[in-house]
Design a protein that fits this description.
Helices cover about 35% and strands about 20% of the residues. It is an alpha+beta fold.
């Protein structure tokens, strides 16, 4: 058994080298990113008015991106936000996991979307384990709902559930402001994504100052957790609310419509 001690030392040394590499790695903006994550958004925020550019406004077919358009969000008053929508994309075949994002409604056909993601490089695939060890940078990707929804429902053939969040006007304004400020902060100083502490859902939850819940890590239960916390409401219990919230068929039906018409149809489907 003389080999046990040398092997143990070798394992500990390898683990030490790995951990040292993880803790000394620095997040960067200058990598070869996936095309839709290649442009970092810039936020202008002053006196309660914001604008965002570039702003993803891509469209998708069943096979690939169709029109890869970058536009901008013209100046909006934060005080004009009417409602905040929470969207869940369950992971197929893995019920405990989901991707989540939000959309801010300002007026008829006027929706502004945000997804928080692991910013992958070309030829990289997402790994929850890698995401716990500084594998990916963190990306706040602002994009049109048509971009965010058709990518998932049309190209990826995913289910989508869209819920109006129960927020006061002051809470909705504070939430939007917090997410805009976090976006600006990442532009100034890159951060790492982390599967446990800085994933799509708990970044959104922290910005809203919500009490911690296990579903902010096991994200497939995020909508149920928000329902239990009174941030999603509806009659007939959670299962009825969940069924009413499914919008992927609506997204596919309206995917080719102009942006404002798509937004109006999406809200009508979710109400």
């Amino acid at each position: 058994m003389r080999w046990v001690v040398p092997v143990l030392y070798a394992v500990l040394a390898a683990a030490g080298v790995f951990l040292l590499a993880v803790v000394t790695k620095q997040p960067r903006h200058d990598r070869d990113w996936y095309p839709h994550l290649s442009r970092l958004p810039h936020v202008e925020l002053q006196d309660g008015v914001f604008s965002i550019a570039p702003y993803g406004n891509w469209t998708y077919t069943e096979d690939a991106p169709d029109e890869m358009i970058w536009s901008g969000v013209p100046p909006h008053r934060i005080s004009d936000v009417r409602r905040v929508w929470f969207v869940m994309e369950p992971h197929p075949g893995l019920a405990v996991m989901a991707h989540t994002f939000v959309m801010f409604e300002f007026g008829e056909g006027d929706l502004v979307g945000l997804t928080i993601e692991a910013r992958k490089e070309t030829r990289e695939t997402y790994s929850a384990l890698g995401g716990a060890f500084n594998k990916f940078e963190l990306m706040y990707y602002w994009a049109s709902p048509r971009d965010l929804m058709t990518r998932r429902a049309v190209m990826m053939d995913r289910d989508l559930f869209m819920y109006p969040l129960q927020l006061s006007q002051a809470e909705a304004e504070a939430y939007l402001t917090s997410l805009l400020e976090k976006t600006a902060s990442i532009e100034r100083r890159p951060r790492f994504y982390n599967t446990l502490t800085s994933n799509c859902t708990n970044e959104l939850a922290k910005a809203a100052d919500l009490p911690w819940h296990p579903a902010f890590i096991l994200t497939g239960g995020a909508d149920r957790a928000l329902y239990a916390q009174g941030r999603i409401s509806g009659e007939g219990g959670f299962e009825a609310v969940h069924a009413k919230a499914e919008v992927d068929a609506c997204v596919r039906e309206n995917a080719r419509r102009p942006e404002a018409a798509f937004n109006a149809a999406l809200i009508a489907c979710a109400e």
